[in-house]
Amino acid sequence: MILLTIINPSQAAHSGLASAARRLRQGLACLLALTATGPCPAGPGAGWLTSGEWSGYAGSEARYFRSDPLDPRQHDGTNLSLMAEPEYYSESDDRTQSLTFTPFYRWDENDSKRTHFDVRELVWQHVGEDWELRTGISKVFWGVAESQHLVDIINQTDLVENIDEEDKLGQPMINLALIRDWGTVNLFVLPWFRERTFPGRKGRLRTTPRVDTSNPIYDSSREKKHVDLAARWSHYIGDWDFGLAHFRGTSRDPLLVPAISKSGEPVLLPRYDIINQTSIDVQATKGDWLWKLEAIRRTGQDDTFYAMVGGFEYTWVGAFDSSADLGFIAEYHRDDRDELAPTPFEDDTMVGLRLTMNDAQSTELLFGIIRDNDGDALTYNLEASRRLGDSWLLEVESRLFTEIERDDPLRGFRDDDYLQVSLTRHF
């Protein structure tokens, strides 16, 4: 209803916007029909909606924690979980319309909060000559850095999946992309807010005290119903790719407020403020070198602050006269809130290696160390993967936390060093 008012054909000055508004009505009708009974009112050629294909994966994951937990309610030793993420994709014969449906489910042996279901995507897309329209639940990624994505703000983080914040919840949205010679403009209306997931009482890799997600604090009286808006312009000139964006709405990064639960337990409550965030991301490709920068300015979350992450990746192609490529990564993080920043990246340096074997099994390895420049804290990260046959994928992940100081946001993880092995079958 909101976007139909914003992009009304009678008000549109450009024929592309008028066409997009008509297609928007059609897409909304299709998505509503898919969640109810009856045919999708998308016209005589709507049979493509049911003639798509399924793909995706299903598998198991085992984690081993070498130390006892800080909280005796947390599980110790090993933890098993099962997960599945199928995907249904269909497109019209003329390839101007498509439908993507990607559900996700994980069962966790010990943490009831990590056992969860989410619709990562349920999105209808229409492609015009110089515009694209997406309606439904979808995922959008912004960013160029390796160790942190400051500018990636559209989707909420699914933190129970992994503390690297790479996993995202599906976000209800209406997204119009205007494609021009001078760049691409993406406009977003985000009508429903998704709260961040956090581990439960028995979960590991969580804060101490735990985060109580049953009593969030909202800046807006509309809470989850607050309508967020975002816009991004992206373009390239020669070897340079860049994006400039602005977001106004509920922050995806909650501040954690100390409180006492009804049972008398000390907890942290997530506080979701209304913010304005302006961001820029730049990447320059200079031969074997990649130069990267992400920077933001945010207001509305206490005092105005600036943050950035920048660095480079150099790839040694054919390392040691082999078919493998070896990448050297270095990045610097800065947040001008200093010790008051609720993030571990207020003044940190990351160095890493990326090994790509370029073999038939797609063997890859990424190793990184993040150092707190204000102290002695070190975080070691290892990720490796290798295909087994045509359908199986073996992945290994490990994280170690050393010398974590009392005021560090990672303090609750200091006894959570772990080794993780996952085996998934792709179809």
Description:
The chain is mostly beta strands and 427 residues long. The protein is built from two helices and 21 strands. The strands form two sheets. It has an 18-stranded antiparallel beta barrel. The protein has a three-stranded mixed beta sheet with strand order 8-12-11, with no helix packed on it. A hairpin with a 3-residue loop joins strand 19 and strand 20. It is globular and about 60 Å long. The two termini are 38 Å apart. The N terminus is likely disordered.
Structure, briefly:
It contains 2 helices and 21 strands. Helices cover 6% and strands 50% of the residues.
Helix content: under 10%
- Structural class comes to mainly beta
Low-confidence stretches: 1-15, 32-44
* Biggest sheet character: 18 strands, antiparallel, barrel
Radius of gyration: 23 Å
Distance between the termini: 38 Å
